[in-house]
Specification:
8-stranded antiparallel β-sheet; 27 strands; Glutamine Phosphoribosylpyrophosphate, subunit 1, domain 1; 7-stranded antiparallel β-sheet; binds 2-deoxy-2-amino glucitol-6-phosphate; 18 helices; 3 domains; alpha/beta
Length: about 600
Amino acid sequence: MCGIVGFTGSANAVPKIVKGLKVLEYRGYDSVGLAAQLNGEIKTLKCKGRVDALRDKLEQEHFPATDCAIGHTRWATHGGPSDINAHPHSTDTLALVHNGIIENYRELKAQLLEKGVKFVSETDSEVAAWVITEEYKAQKDPIKAIYSSLKKLSGSYAFEILFKDRPGEIFAVRQGSPLILATGVDGGYIASDMTALLPFTDTFCFLREGALAHVTKDSVQIVKEDGTLEEPVWQKTDMTVEAAEKCGYPHFMLKEIHEQPNAFLKTVSPRIKNGLPDFSGDGVSDDLLRRAKKIYIVACGSAMHAGLCGKYLIEHWAKIPVTVEIASEFRYNDPLIDSDTLMIIVSQSGETADSLAALRYGKEHGAFTMGIINVVGSSIAREADATLYTYAGPEIAVATTKGYCVQVAAFMLIAAKLSALCGTLSENEVRTLCSELCRDVPKAIEETFSLHDEIKEIAKKLYQSENLFYIGRGIDYALGVEGSLKLKEISYIHSEAYAAGELKHGTISLITEGTPVIAVATSARLYDKTVSNIRECSSRGANVLFICYNDAHQPENVADTVLRLPKVGRHAEMLAAMTAMQLIAYEVAVLRGCDIDRPRNLAKSVTVE
Ligand code: AGP
């Protein structure tokens, strides 16, 4: 949700900002801009559109070199996408970029209007710029001015600020939105995401909540409110620039789909010790898990869909009751939390505002909180009592694929671990399960790639549809919900997922001649029941694609098109089916000419509630 990047040092900042913004575009891409320190002035350039539009403008205007600049790529919240609402926002004193939302901006704006301030944009960010300006005029000290401004602002923010009379200095502060500090050979950097800085350095510091950073070409400091310094905690990353590049794939989404087998293994195998799941390296003791009498899984979007699979796996193997909640609803549903409640917060980015708020609510009410998080050092990872990191590497495509895959992987491990602790599976059964997961799941996903040509043909039949239904039972319903979201978000085809048996309670009235239905059956257990539901659809004219397990009994007699999943062991079919659905969504979106990695209206990390 908005990407920000800043550099000050001995090199030209402009190409660095543009490069960083290009990487950050997935965080928001409706307008873009930068502000640069130039001879005691701040020069700003911004426009509606994407980073390429800014790059063109910079060239057309022969934008001069500068050693200090900040940039922003926006996902609109307050004020639509436009040149004027694009960041940076400037006053007579400073320029500022902002990621987040200032919740009390209306009252603050009214007060500032009374004082005669003239606003040019509709944004909450411009209000913050003026609040800091007023404080700076009164206090003449940037650090004091920023800290006292923060007492007036409520909401979430990561700000980067240039003051006209402080050349070569960037001030930045965060509350609820991430900021990463970095040092390189040629100066200091600060950005909303580590990936923006990977081309320049491998040494980073996650700025803590509420902290203020002062970046100059010679130093990167964290300054406390009383003016004393806090030692930054520097960490090296082994993440490479290639991890954030397409490496020959036409889209990040396709690259990330292909990274799933490896991401699955990287997440699962280090946590299997002596053949059994072991979370001691993650700070999750067996005693803590043993205490879990009930489990809440809380997340948004695809992460919540991974949680639906988690519920199925945990209840099926470990027999512990699990409730899956949409994070934005959680706090308002009066959840029944006590000290025997394990709350699992699932988030690829670790920054999703609703999930973070739910985590804080759970902690306040005494739950033991555990994150399943991909981004190291992110807010949820830092605030949860423990975190199981998923090792998918950076996920750039807005539509998650490998991020979801590793979340399901984490749930497979958790379910196996809990069933060992609860004794619902014997130690030998858990051992077998673990070795099957490592052996079969990556192979099953890999072999699903060989169905890609078949899937391209399927996509040709689907891409002109206006509506589409996904049906399945049990875990296949959970998979269908995610398959449907993938299709919707990147191809803009309306689709719904239904528990196969539920369709006849109303929605079947929408099935008419030619309505496409994708039915999923990944195991024999519910196959016959699903087949009956398919027949209900086909007898009303539906055109059914049946994604089924390899040994399924005569699916060709039931559906118009059959996609048989590879023949690999049990438990592997679900991620094979998901891979097939990801590829279907991808190929449909390709045929429709959609912007696959940056679908309209979306952003990768949703840091507003
Ligand atoms: C899925 O493709 C979406 N990008 C979205 O639903 C996403 O899963 C959701 O916003 C949660 O994000 P998180 O995992 O970063 O918390």
